[in-house]
Design a protein that fits this description.
By secondary structure, this protein is α/β, with parallel strands linked by helices. The chain contains 21 helices and 11 strands. The longest helix has 30 residues, at about 460-490. The protein is globular.
């Protein structure tokens, strides 16, 4: 057998599990063994186990794709590496909270469903991205025409979507006289608990009204706010981890040192003591969520679109430009901060902290990666704050430039005329409207017709339409770098 992190003698500087992993049971089942989960929820659960032991183990399930990752995880006794990379030093940790994994391709969907229906399962958590919830725009209603949802309705006992798997697992638990579990979304979407609750209940209602009623009265869906910069693993990342460990870890991930998790404390069947390792268990998550989505994620999207167009491959490179750094500060403090409802937080200090995190040269966070799925991210990161300013008479020049930057990005060419590999669930519709007319003001009008993104209110608001058209034409005529510089000179107040 090849040497893995489970069998190799690792350097003394690498922290390893000191608790008894043989005690672990699959009390948490997680859907979506992606980079963020590995560096966030699973890591914090590992820290709880390191502090006080216990049996809060995690079973990882990838429903679609990721077969190689699950296979590799099994080959190294479900251990993997998190490399926390600061600007000056890095620290490696072997995470031991995961002790089991499944995949329908290996184990069959029936075994996956039975795992979720086991008596000890207390939490089913998710990181499946916005697309994985199969919701209509706004996150309030399930898209019954989504192909995966339509298939789940036709064959509910052989589901393929995340909502379908959860509903069928809960049906089996009810049928077997077992208690419910908590459904815990850890995705970076507004009111994620409410989103997954709507998805699960509407799918259950379409199948069995009695089941839907039982879920509504028995299952809890806490909202959460997650924050940690975790770039997608690249070959360079895996090479860095191999140099630190002395052995390769195909499941390893690198991230920044900063970590935050704000969780609504509403768990029907218990939870790990995450508050002992830094998580904030609160009654109301929304104010924290708005702050993070608008100040951090909104700024990230601004840098992603306008940075990529100008040729900046990485976020830290864009932040190395004084022009972009000043633009981000103005965006956060002048246009995002006034829209927030949070109290007791020094937003200027928070903005300074974000700028420092964005500048971390060790992460190599690609602008292209952050630009993915923009149609799903734009509404909460930029459009909702713009609506706030339209209601309150505020200025939103940098927000508008961010929207125009997205429009230029999805038009398909950067400022050097190079094609852009656009990844978006609405790509077909975006391409269709972009091809309906000439570039320029007509392109803006065509993109604004995408109701899933812009609704019906913004395309009818003359102030917004004129502002985004002006910004788009400037980007078209002089490129992103000069346009950002011009706005910084005009707009710093």
């Amino acid at each position: 057998m090849d040497t893995t992190i489970a069998t190799a003698e690792l350097p003394a500087a690498i922290s390893q599990p000191a608790y008894d992993r043989g005690m672990l049971r699959s009390r948490i089942v997680h859907l979506g063994f992606g980079a963020f989960h590995r560096a966030h929820q699973a890591l914090l659960t590992h820290r709880v186990l390191s502090l006080e032991g216990g049996d809060w183990g995690i079973c990882e399930i990838n429903l679609v794709g990721g077969e190689e990752l699950i296979s590799a995880l099994r080959q190294q006794d479900h251990l993997y590496t998190v490399l926390e990379k600061g600007a000056e030093a890095s620290h490696g940790h072997i995470i031991g909270s995961v002790h089991e994994s499944m995949h329908p391709a290996f184990d069959g969907m029936e075994a996956v469903l039975d795992k979720l229906a086991e008596p000890q399962v207390a939490i089913v958590s998710l990181t499946v991205t916005e697309k994985g919830y199969c919701m209509l725009a706004g996150g309030r209603h399930l898209d019954l025409n989504n192909p995966m949802i339509a298939a789940d309705l036709a064959a509910p006992q052989n589901p393929s979507s995340a909502p379908g798997v959860i509903v069928e697992a809960l049906r089996r638990r009810r049928e077997r006289g077992l208690g419910a579990f908590t459904v815990l979304s850890c995705d970076n979407i507004p009111e994620n608990g409410h989103v997954v609750r709507h998805a699960v209940l509407e799918l259950a209602q379409a199948q069995d009204a009695g089941l839907a009623q039982w879920i509504a009265s028995s299952v809890t869906f806490p909202n959460t706010m997650v924050d940690r910069i975790v770039p997608a693993a690249t070959q360079d990342t895996l090479n860095d981890i191999a140099r630190v460990l002395g052995v390769r870890d195909p499941c390893g991930i690198a991230c920044e040192p900063f970590i935050q998790w704000v969780v609504e404390d509403n768990f029907v069947a218990g939870r790990p003591a995450w508050e002992k390792v830094g998580a904030e268990l609160v009654k109301e998550v929304l104010p924290y969520e708005e702050m993070k989505l608008r100040m951090l994620n909104g700024s990230h999207s601004f840098l992603a679109y306008l940075g990529y167009l100008a040729g900046y491959q990485y976020i830290d490179a864009a932040m190395g430009s004084d022009t972009y750094r000043r633009a981000i500060r103005a965006l956060m403090m002048n246009e995002q901060a006034p829209t927030l409802s949070i109290t007791g937080v020094d937003l200027a200090a928070y903005a300074d902290q974000l700028a420092e995190r964005f500048t971390n040269p060790s992460l190599r966070h690609r602008t292209w990666q952050i630009a993915m799925d923009g149609s799903q991210k734009l509404p909460q990161r930029m459009l909702d704050p713009i609506r706030w300013h339209l209601r309150h008479g505020g200025r939103f020049d940098f927000l508008t430039l961010g929207v125009a930057g997205w429009m230029r990005y999805v038009s398909g060419e950067d400022d050097r005329g190079q094609p852009i590999d656009i990844r978006d669930p609405l790509l077909k519709e975006i391409r269709s409207v972009c091809e309906t007319g000439p570039d320029g003001a007509e392109r803006v009008k065509a993109l604004l017709s995408l109701g899933h993104i812009f609704g019906t209110d913004l395309p009818g608001d003359n102030d917004f339409v004129q502002s985004v058209t002006r910004a788009y034409l400037l980007l078209q005529q002089q490129g992103a770098e000069k346009t950002v510089s011009q706005l910084v000179q005009e707009g710093i107040r």
